[in-house]
Design brief:
The chain has twelve helices and 13 strands. The chain is about 35% helix and about 15% strand. The longest helix has 22 residues. The radius of gyration is 20 Å and the shape is globular. It is α/β, with parallel strands linked by helices. InterPro entries: Enolase-like_C_sf, Enolase-like_N, Enolase_C-like, Mandelate_racemase_C, Mandelate_racemase_N_dom, RHMD-like. One of its GO terms (biological process) is carbohydrate catabolic process.
């Protein structure tokens, strides 16, 4: 039986390759905390998490001071037990963003270690439903991008074989409609358009706008309201024919259960980092499957491709490249589809020299054996 004898924690701060603006914020930085877990049998697992500009240092401190010490001496195979124990150890700050993001870094490291020991890739170890998934792009759909460029990006995505393109909404209604109309007319009826409001609207505004968006046959209406407004999502879902998508800002499987039970959404977008790791992500995916609802996760395409391919109801992977500078090779794409890696582990070929070189403050925290 293996035992964890060392944990290493560091953080890299990545700047977006392109300007990314939505209805409520700008994506100025991806703080990326890393956790490496070493066992006494020589096995190693690497996990990570992210923020979009704030909270990264708090995540690192939570891991270093409170979570990583709890791992020393534990059997890394007992992932479920470890996740529950760490959640209880931080119960005064759970469920919440910082705690969930910290749990993800540890949980993904444990899953990476498990897959490597088993000699299997994540999509097989976690379920093995398929080996590739449909891909849509968000990278050319940010709110600041003007209509001609929006259309051009969607056409390029279609030509590349992608199945869809997402655009941000939240400009004055007539502008949103004109932009949607231009994209739909350019790509035709056999290409999906997703729209994303990033929690910007009140209930009345979301319902009013839905009537204007409906004629363009969008694949889903994402985060129209603040994630905590369950009642508003219930009212909106009953008032529109558009599928309502939620999840990137939901931090607990129990909250997804409430949305699904109350018929407040039609698409689940659980983010593996924000829900606390692979362990709870799989629960959310299977919960959605029980309600005949697909899961289309938010961001982190390099990790989510394995998870989407692990479960039967995994439908889409979101294309937003961000980790290229830290990896030896990027996401594998064939005929516009994201292909899960066949290599043991999470399927991410980390460039550890680049990660070490880009450490914030040039520092790695070591817990346990040096």
């Amino acid at each position: 039986m293996a035992r964890i004898d060392r944990v290493e924690v560091l953080m890299v701060d990545l700047k977006p390759k392109v300007k990314r603006v939505d209805a409520i914020q700008s994506f100025v930085s991806q703080e990326t905390p890393f956790v490496r877990i070493f066992a006494d049998d020589g096995s190693v697992g690497t996990g990570y998490t992210f923020t979009i500009g704030t909270g990264g240092h708090s995540i690192v401190e939570l891991i270093v001071r409170h979570l990583a010490p709890q791992l020393i001496g534990r059997d890394p195979a007992f992932i479920e037990e470890i996740w529950r124990d760490l959640l209880f150890h931080t119960h005064a700050t759970a469920v919440g963003a910082i705690t969930s993001l910290a749990l993800c870094a540890i949980d993904t490291a444990l899953w990476d270690l498990r897959c490597r020991v088993a000699g299997r890739p994540l999509h097989v170890e976690a379920g093995g439903a398929k080996s590739s998934a449909r891909l849509y792009t968000t990278e050319g759909g940010w709110l600041q991008i003007e209509t001609p460029a929006l259309v051009e990006d969607a056409l390029k995505a279609k030509e590349a074989g992608f199945g869809g393109s997402k655009m941000k909404v939240g400009r004055p209604i007539h502008q949103d409609v004109a932009r949607l109309q231009a994209v739909r007319e350019a790509v035709g009826p056999d290409f999906e358009i997703m729209i994303d409001a990033n929690q910007a609207f009140t209930v009345d505004e979301a319902i009013r706008r839905a009537r204007h968006y409906e004629p363009f046959d969008v694949a889903w209406y994402e985060e129209p309201l603040p994630a905590e407004d369950l009642g508003g999502h219930i009212r909106l879902s009953a008032a529109t024919t558009l599928p309502v998508a939620v999840g990137e800002s939901i931090y607990s499987v129990s909250h997804f259960r409430e949305y699904l039970q109350r018929e407040a959404c039609s698409i689940v977008q659980a983010d593996v980092a924000r829900i606390g790791g692979i362990t709870p992500w799989l629960k959310a995916a299977h919960l959605a499957e029980a309600f005949n609802v697909p899961i289309c996760p938010h961001f982190l395409m390099e990790l989510h491709v394995g998870l989407v391919c692990a479960v039967p109801n995994g439908r889409w992977v979101e294309y937003i490249p961000q980790l290229d500078i830290l990896t030896e090779k990027g996401l594998r794409i064939e005929n516009g589809r994201a292909v899960a890696s066949d290599e043991p582990g999470l399927g991410i070929a980390w460039n550890f020299e680049a990660i070490e070189r880009m450490r914030v403050d040039g520092r790695t925290h070591v817990i346990g054996r040096n």
